[in-house]
Amino acid sequence: MIALTQLQKLIRDHSNEGITQTALPNVTLSRTSVTTDPIQTIYEPSLCVVVQGAKFAMLGTSSFIYNTAQYLVVSVNLPLAGAVATASEDRPYLGLKMNLDLHVLRSLILELPELAEMARPTAGLTVGKLTPELSDALVRLIKLLSRPADIPVLGPMIEREIIYRLITGKDAHLLRQLAATDSRLSQIHRAIGWISRHYSEAFRIEALAEIAGMSVSSFHQHFKAVTSMSPLQYQKHIRLHEARRLVLSKQMDAAKAWPAPLGGSTG
To answer: CATH number for the domain including 232?
Structure first.
């Protein structure tokens, strides 16, 4: 695939070892010559593409591996353990990540109502294979890094095209559900958003179910299907991630970074 070769060269040209934040606000590039141990982090809705090598991700007890010319789509905020599984000095791991603008996603679904899908959600992420159309759009997006004056105008246009390619592809069900405000995935997304904003607070499962607009039993079932964990387990992952972030970013004492023990949460 010519576009894949182009992407490999573009990422080598525009990245350093590790993770590189680019002039495209929603895009980061990754390059590493060694495999890595799993690192727990919070993935926001995003498209993660392996351009060379392979990566491993774990959500709860479910594992996902995506190789060269494959991608991972994450539809809601999820605590994932990710690791580079294949990399070497001669053929380093190369990847790119594009955060997905949910406003753009929803506007496209409104323009294309035939794409609306109300199927029951499974896990909040899926692995897919790059298509020529998606690869071509990604090449044009990364090429903008050599023409920074074009980024403010052309960047959003190409990102919109990439989202369009995702929601019209064979693995588009997650993003289509997320865009529908009354879909099960969108309802769980609302509850996930509340937990992410109030991760240090106790909650009642009935209150979370009400935020999602679901019965308690249905909320439990669908939350577990999307995140592979209970609401309380999800909250604990968010709290652990935030504590680690504070320690790393502010060099805080671990005891001060960790929120006070919760009481009364049920999940």
So the answer is: 1.10.10.60
User: Quick one: pLDDT at residue 161?
Assistant: 97
For the stretch 6-55, pLDDT in tens is 999 999 999 999 999 999 999 999 999 999 999 888 899 999 999 999 99
Q: What is the domain count for the chain?
A: 2
Alpha helices in 69-119 (DSSP H): 102-111
Q: Which residues pair with 54 in a beta bridge?
A: 67, 86
- Give the angle 118-124-130 at the CA atoms, nearest 5°: 95
Biggest alpha carbon distance in the chain? 56
Asked whether residue 166 falls in the same domain as residue 220, the answer is no
Strand partners, 126: 73
Question: Whole-model pTM above 0.85?
Answer: no
Domain that holds residue 161: 2-177
Q: What are phi and psi of 205, to 5 degrees?
A: -60, -30
How many CA atoms, within 13 angstroms, populate the side-chain half-sphere of residue 194? 18
